[in-house]
Each structure stands twice: as C-alpha cells, then as structure tokens.
Amino acid sequence: MIVGPEAFGVAVIYKINPNGAMIIFVPGVNYASSLAVDRMGNLFVADYDNGTIYQYKPTGARAIFASGLHHPVGMAFDSLGQLFVVDNNAGNIYQGHIYGYKPNGSRTIYAVLESADRPADLAFDSLGSLFVADLGGKIYKYDPPGVLRRHPRTTFGSVPGSAQSLGFDSAGNLLVVDAGGANSTGTVMSNAIYKFTQQGVRSMFASGQAVGESFACLAFQPMACCQ
Asked: pTM here?
C-alpha cells in the first residue's frame, strides 16, 4: 500500500499487485500519516488531521478502529498483534503518548512522551523493544517492562538531521531515514539513510545525491519462511 495525491487536500491509498498493477484501494483520505497491516490483511490508516485510525478490510469496507487522538503520526504491530500508535504533542495543551491497542480496540497507555518530543515513526525489534524516530534527530528505545519503570526509555542513537522513518532488516540492524535539513550552524544536510547495528554503531547506508531525490519511508520484504 502507498499513499498518493488525488486532489488538493485529499489523498488516496493505492494497492500495488505483485504484477505491478496499481489500483485505488481507499479514495478520499484527509491526511494519511501512517499505514500498518495486520496478519489478517486488514489495513490500518492513521488520519493525522482528524485524530482517527481507520480499519479497512481486504474488501475495502471501512470502520473506525480508534478515535479521539490528537495527531497520530506512526503505527506498528507487536508480536502479539497489538497495534501501537504514537500521538503527537500539542505544545502545552496536550501531552503526547504511545498507545497500545488490542485487536478488540481497547487501549492502554504504553508511554508518555516528553514535552519536547517530535515523534515521526515506530518500529519493534525481534526482542520486543519499541523504537521511536524523532524529528529532532534522536532514536529512542523503550525496553520491555522493567523493575523501576514500566517501559524504560533510552536514547539508542541519533542522525545529523531529522529521523523520519524506521525499519529493521533480517539481521536485526535498524535502518533510519534522515530527512536532512539545516543544523544549528545553518549548514544544509542532505537526505540519507543510516544503518545502526544492534549495539548502536551508525554507518551511512545510502545518500540522496541525485537532484530532487528525497527518501521518505522504509519497508523490508519478509523472509521467505515468514511470508
């Protein structure tokens, strides 16, 4: 599934078949900020402007899965099939959260964000730790429940510009899209993809050198045994 433009202020979600044929699966989406697909093939769409998560059956039938969010910006499923959503801050008015939704739609608070956080995406590693990409350049890691804190948070790493999208490869390396931008000294940094080992060692994976080239999102093909 991909999100594309249909008209000003309106987006559509395209479904691309294995043969490359592209059809409109969902028309008239207001602002689809994140997509996620569960094991049953249901598509979940976060509507940034309306604070709603929609669930689409493979047939295209739509239902509201969750509502009452501020600005949902990233979603990921854990190994138990629970949907996790990061909801953005609203200055001093609304504190951001990471919520966990069970398949029946019941919600729990997984973590409360810091006031300065600018979350962009979520991803789980194979051990169940949750990673958050922050537009300020940090990648935060929430470990499974601990003794002192329910979900201890650490800074796993950072990128020079703005962490925008996350994805884990089959070897457990974390790939991060850096949207680039200008740093505190006014130097313009190019768009790039960085790779982090499980120990947090960073290296350049790809750099947007071509004119007009800009990386946005990451996705990995499942291993053959898991398809």
From this structure: 0.85
